[in-house]
Amino acid sequence: MTAAIRRTVTFPGISMERLKGMLGAYNGHLKQIEQRLDVKISHRGDAFYIDGEIDAVERAESLLMRLHEETEVSQQVSADTLHLIIQGSQTDRELQEDFSDNEHTGLDAVWLQTRKGRINPRGANQKRYVQRILQSDISFGIGPAGTGKTYLAVAAAVDMLERNEIQRILLVRPAVEAGEKLGFLPGDLSQKIDPYLRPLYDALYEMLGFEKVAKLIERQIIEVAPLAYMRGRTLNHSFVILDEAQNTTPEQMKMFLTRLGFGSRAVITGDITQVDLPRGQQSGLSHALRVIEKIPEIHITRFHSRDVVRHQLVQKIVEAYEGWDSEQHRLSAEARAERKARQEALIAENDAAADAQD
Questions:
Q1: Contact 216, 162 (CB under 8 A)
Q2: Do 279 and 157 belong together in one domain?
Q3: CATH number, domain with residue 249
Q4: Rounded to whole angstroms, what are the CA distances from 97 to 93, 100, 101, 303?
Q5: Long-range contacts of 101-107 (CB under 8 A, 24+ apart)
Q6: For residues 287 and 315, what is the distance between their CA atoms, to the nearest angstrom?
Q7: Together in a domain, 198 and 292
Q8: Domain range spanning residue 135?
Q9: pLDDT single digits (tens) 301-348
């Protein structure tokens, strides 16, 4: 059993308003950290005293430092924000062994700047994802909904546009529900595919504001397009995001990846467990991951349920579905093995009967 320790963390000169933000209403933030990490935290003035096992105390110390950083931006820290900080700290620890030395370098300094403010990735996996987007021409973000893969891709695009590193942003999504045969729908192209691109629009509105986004779309600096409309184009000096890529075919994915021109970069996001293609149709995302996995210039970041940054109940729901799917795959494999054994036994029995007749 790990020995209990006490550690003191001080924040010299902290204002009363920032201190209130760190504590939360009725010390609610401290209570949440205590409950989640199984530690005891007390404070007097600018000093916090943490008691517990060494690993938990170190995590609690790190969380207090993060809370202090959060109150520098906004003196009020919500319970939801604290939940994400706690969750991110756990993910950081789980991922440390997976990181190369190069990926460790500068990871804490990864952030994105938009017109509406700075966006800080939550947790080491999100930071690694953003770092790879900013450093690579083609990046993949694979994982369940709620892990921030699409939101951060849009944020990176906005960041690069604001710094004049690219000339335009293209948002692409396969409109699989309409079979990408959009001609029969009313309205212009943008209006026809708006429902399929709504999550991307929502992120843009949050980062740039509605009026700015509308002006950029009018000037074609931000462009929306169904995947089928990308054929034959070469995209130079652009940031292209292909969302819901699990609903592409292998042919569509190859077409998209070969559209990249000079000074451009592409981010492909998707969840290979949520394919909406017709039964029997191979996902272009799953196929591409096997084809390009050995190309060193292309980076793939895989997210898991532990990376979900929505309501904490969402993480539990994702984990429950993942567990259910794993169990169904196991039962299916057992059923196939049992059928195969019965078939082999029947063949052996028939062969034995034939030999007896001979």
A1: no
A2: yes
A3: 3.40.50.300
A4: 8, 8, 10, 16
A5: 103/128, 103/131, 106/131, 107/131
A6: 27
A7: yes
A8: 122-310
A9: 998 877 776 666 766 777 788 788 778 878 887 888 888 888 888 888
